[in-house]
Amino acid sequence: MASTSSTPPNQGKKWDVFISFRGDDTRYGILSHLSRALKDKQIKTFTDEELHKGEEISPELLKIIRESSVSIVIFSENYADSPWCLDELVEILKCKEESAQIVLPVFYKVDPTDVQKLSGNFGKAFAIAMHGEKGSSQKVDKWKRALMEVSNLSGWDSQKIKYEAKLVEGIVNDVLKKFSDMSKGDDSYDRNLIGIKLRVEEVERLLNEKQIVGIWGMGGIGKTTIAQEVFHRNKNKFDGHCFVENDRNHLKDLAGDCDLYGEGSRIIITSRDSLGLSEEDRYEVEKLSDSQGLELFSLHAFEQNLSKEEYKELSNKAINYLEAIH
C-alpha cells in the first residue's frame, strides 16, 4: 500500500459512486472530467451511458444504484426534462432514506434556487417531463419530492468556482473525505470472526510504527483473515493498495527493499514462520481461548453463539480433536 490520500472502504457495495446526469448537458464537460478523476483515485464509478435507455428505468440500473455507496447528482439545465433522470433521482432518495446512502448534489451551470423551487429554466425543463406524465400524478409527486429533498442537501455550486478543474477536484476530495468518515465510523465486525477485534487492533498498533509487519502462526489459525480485516479497514489511508494471496515464491520480489517505498507505505506479510523479523516487527497469532473456541464451533455447528447444553461436552471433545490434528 502506498500512502497519502484516501480511497473508499467499499463497505460490501459493488460500486463506490453512481453518477446521475443529463448527457446532452454534461457528457463532454464535467461528466468526463469527474468520472476520470474518480477512477484515477481507484474509486469504482458507474455512469449509465452504456445502458440502453428505454421509456422506463431498467431493473438493472435500479440494482446498480442500490449497490452504490455514494450517488452524485449533477443538476444541469435540462436534467429535469428527462423522466429517466427523475426516476433515477427517486431511487437515489429512496436509498438515502432506507440504507443511508450518501447523496452529493452538484449544481452545474444552474442556480440551486431554481432547482429547489422548480423555477427558471429548470422549472421549464420539469414542466416538459410533467407533460408526458399527465395520467400519473403519483409519479410526478415523487419526482417533485425527490428534486426538493436532494437539491436541499449540502453540495457543490459551479457558479461559485471559476475553473471546472477546481470544481472537479473539490468534488473528488469531498467524496474521499466522506469515504474516510464512513470507514472511521464503522467499528463493526462480522459476528462469525470470533476474537478478531483485539487481533486487528494489535496489528494496527504495529503498523503505526513499522513499515513491514509480519503476521505469523500455525496453519488455519486465522492469519489471512486478520490481514484481510486490517487491509479493508485501513486501505482508505493510501493512494494505492493491493492484496496478494498465495504468492510465497515471489515474496522477496514483491516486498523488495524498504528503500523502494515511500515512508508512509505499509506492507503486511503472513507466514507460518517468523519471517526473520524481530519480535517488535511481527504479531504472533495465538489460538482462541477455550470459550472463544466453543463459541466459534457453536456458530458453525448450531448457528448460535452458545452450544446447546446437552451438546457442550461433545462440542469440547470435537474442539480438542481438531486442535490435536493441527
Name some characteristics of this structure.
elongated; Rossmann fold; three-stranded parallel sheet; 2 domains; alpha/beta; 13 helices; 326 residues
What is the strand and helix layout of this fold?
Blueprint: E1 2-3, E2 15-20, H1 23-26, H2 30-40, E3 45-47, H3 59-66, E4 68-75, H4 83-99, E5 102-107, H5 112-117, H6 120-131, H7 137-151, E6 156-157, H8 164-185, H9 196-207, E7 212-216, H10 223-234, E8 238-240, H11 251-255, E9 267-271, E10 282-284, H12 290-302, H13 312-325
Parallel strand pairs: 2-3, 2-4, 4-5, 5-6, 7-9, 7-10
Antiparallel strand pairs: 1-8
Task: Walk me through what this model shows.
The protein has 13 helices and ten strands. The protein has 326 residues and is α/β, with parallel strands linked by helices. It folds into two domains: 2-184, Toll/interleukin-1 receptor homology (TIR) domain (Rossmann fold), CATH 3.40.50.10140; 207-286, no CATH class. Helix 4 links the parallel strand 4 (68-75) and strand 5 (102-107). The two termini are 33 Å apart. 32% of the residues are buried. Mean pLDDT is 81; it is low at 1-11.
